[in-house]
């Protein structure tokens, strides 16, 4: 069964446990497109929260989903990046290539926001090939600048505000990740496709 388990978390909410973050994003996107009756559908690392649902009937509503279901394409956001981050050479060493080749690779892939967390506007972006996985810093920085584009494991992310962090920083962008005056405050909501471009 595609949905591993359904766990009620109240009279009108339920967690659907799935294999991983990509499956969670797929289920959430599919459920929205299918019109599954819920006030909110929130994907995470290996679960999807269905809030404001009929818990008893949710299993039937999700029965036709599978991880192989064609994803519904999300909007595409292009993010210009100044690739001069403090860890660019470190990533190049991990990948066995030059810094310029890191930039070419990073701008060649399409990423997808699969879930949000850590800070308002921070989205975990999938799309980094498994063989390009990189470790976090041994000791996190006390302050990472807002707009920092960074990698950790097989994730890519952009720090929306200044904060501590242990990801490897490739560069910076001026895009605003979180703005409460927008109809949708998060620029990179789950399902959004992301392409990075070298600025200037």
UniProtKB/TrEMBL annotation:
InterPro entries (alphabetical): CT_C_D, Cyclophilin-like_dom_sf, PxpB
Molecular-function GO terms, alphabetical: ATP binding; hydrolase activity
The entry's keywords: ATP-binding, Hydrolase, Nucleotide-binding
Protein name in the entry: Sensor histidine kinase inhibitor, KipI family
Coiled coil: none
Limits of the Carboxyltransferase domain: 4-188
């Amino acid at each position: 069964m595609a949905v591993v388990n359904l766990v009620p978390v109240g009279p009108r909410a339920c967690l659907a446990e799935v294999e991983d973050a990509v499956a969670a994003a797929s289920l959430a996107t599919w459920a929205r497109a299918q019109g599954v009756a819920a006030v909110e559908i929130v994907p995470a690392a290996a679960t999807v929260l269905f809030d404001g649902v009929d818990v008893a009937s949710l299993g039937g509503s999700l029965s036709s989903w599978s991880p192989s279901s064609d994803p519904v394409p999300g909007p595409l956001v292009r993010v210009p990046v100044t690739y001069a981050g403090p860890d660019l050479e470190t990533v190049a060493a991990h990948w066995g290539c030059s810094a310029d080749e890191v930039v070419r690779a990073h701008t060649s892939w399409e990423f997808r926001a699969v879930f949000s967390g850590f800070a308002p506007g921070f989205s975990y972006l999938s799309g980094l090939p498994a063989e390009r996985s990189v470790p976090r810093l041994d000791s996190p920085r006390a302050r990472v600048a807002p707009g920092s584009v960074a990698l950790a494991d097989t994730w890519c992310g952009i720090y929306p505000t200044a904060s501590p962090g242990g990801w490897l920083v490739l560069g910076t962008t001026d895009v605003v990740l979180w703005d409460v005056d927008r109809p949708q405050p998060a620029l990179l909501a789950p399902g959004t496709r992301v392409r990075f471009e070298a600025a200037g």
